[in-house]
Amino acid sequence: MCVMYSYTNAQLYVDSNGNTTIGDYFNTNTSLSVNSSANSLKSYYLTELNTNSHFCALGINNSTHVQLPTNVSHEFYGIQLGCENNANSATYGITTCVSSEGPFSTGRAYGLLAEAGRSTPGWNFGICTSVTGENNGAGLFASSGSYPEGFNVNGRWAGYFDGNVNVVGNLSASSYTCSSDYRLKENIRQIDNGSLDKILGMNVVKYKIKNTEVDMGDTAKTVHYKYPEDSPLLKKDHYGVIAQELREIYPELVNEGEDGYLSVNYIELVPILIKSIQELALKVEALKNESPRAVLRGNGTTSINQGINQTVLFQNDPNPFTEKTTIKCIIPNSVKSAVLYIYDMNGRQIDSMPIPERENVTITIEGSRLDAGMYMYSLVTDGNLVDTKRMILTK
Q1: Contact 21/33 with Cβ under 8 angstroms?
Q2: What is the pLDDT of residues 110-129, one digit of tens each?
Q3: Model-level pTM?
């Protein structure tokens, strides 16, 4: 039995199995189908089984570019969506908004809750998303609230996060970089001397992670913990510092989270370690080049080594600089010729400065002589390169 009602272009079909079609193309494979042959891009269907071996609960298609996977014999879809927009406007495949009238201490809200499992090992994805085409964008853009609809991003990213990101467990990456371009910085200053003493005052400890409870809401019946009992993170030793102690030395390196716990910015501790190594190197060089220097022999007698016998080029100070900076170096009296060369980052020589002085020498570089940017300076004595360092001029 088949029932059809038609009025002008509006048509209703119901077959003997209860399959219903609204439109002018009767689809016998769906429980409910809404379509129009006048606009072949638009179709809506509610079904259990499709004869093309695609199983779908709800399908909405507004695009000729939606392609189904072809590497498996059967595909199952809870919801299949397709959307195409030829106009210069926003296009949304799916939008969700879950909210309450006011902030409550109970209840839960999920804009999107997804699970996947029990399929081919390695092919279970709760959410699988990508950015297609040639233009910049991100496969996943997540914001903590500042930009719920995203913003224009440079480059192509698998994931772009606006806000803090918390990871429970290990975070793995082939490489890790931090933004450090001087064009993104202001009020650049040299780290004050004394880093070595502060580093020596730090308490470095070995510890194990304590497992903590996780709040599952007011309906939780059992106690849940952040890590599984057999987690390797709980079993192995870890190394670090105590945040409360470090805050007394470098408060800028300690952050307090919204949960009240303290965390340490270990990445920004690296420049302080570099500075302390530089201070230690200066102390070693000072001991090497002490004049006069007393050397205790094995028989108890003392010999005096007069003069300086090693050539050393030091880092300019301040660095970066705006108006002027000084470069110190040690040049023995035995050196016949000494020249300081300045190059740009392309290796082109900008300036050369002969140095007639010997032993402890100080050279002043005026910022007005150079354009803003990064430069290299090299000390050459008697035709031999001693050392090369970098300096940054900002204006």
Answers
A1: yes
A2: 878 888 888 888 888 888 88
A3: 0.54
Measured CA to CA in angstroms, residue 103 lies from 127, 170, 216, 370 at distances of 28, 33, 18, 58
Rounded to whole angstroms, the Cα distance separating 62 from 352 reads 69
| CA-CA-CA-CA torsion sign (159, 160, 162, 167) | positive
Q: Which residue has the higher pLDDT, 293 or 212?
A: 212
Mean pLDDT of 371-386: 92
Phi, psi of 299, deg, nearest 5 = -85, 5
Q: Which residues pair with 131 in a beta bridge?
A: none
State how far the Cα of 156 lies from the Cα of 160, in Å rounded to an integer. Answer: 9
Extents of the domains making up the chain: 3-83, 110-165, 306-393
Residue 253 region by backbone torsions, left for phi larger than 0, else alpha for psi between -120 and 50, else beta: alpha
349: three-class secondary structure by DSSP = strand
Token pair belonging to 337: 């010729």
3-state helix, strand, coil in the chain (%, to 5): 10, 35, 55
CB-based contact 128:120 (threshold 8 Å): no
**Does the domain spanning 306-393 belong to CATH 2.60.40.1930?**
yes
